[in-house]
Amino acid sequence: MSFLSNQLLCVLLILLGTFAASLQLRSFLRVVTRMRWLFLSILIIYGFGTPGEFIPHIPVNFAPTFEGVQQGMLQIVKLLIALAALSLLFSTSSKAHLIHGLYILLSPLKFLGLNVKRFAVRLLLTLDYVEELASQQQHKFSLNQFDDIYLTADEQVADKVIVFESLPFNFLDKVMMFIFMGAISGMLVLGFQS
Question: What is the structure's pLDDT at 90?
Answer without folding.
Answer: 81
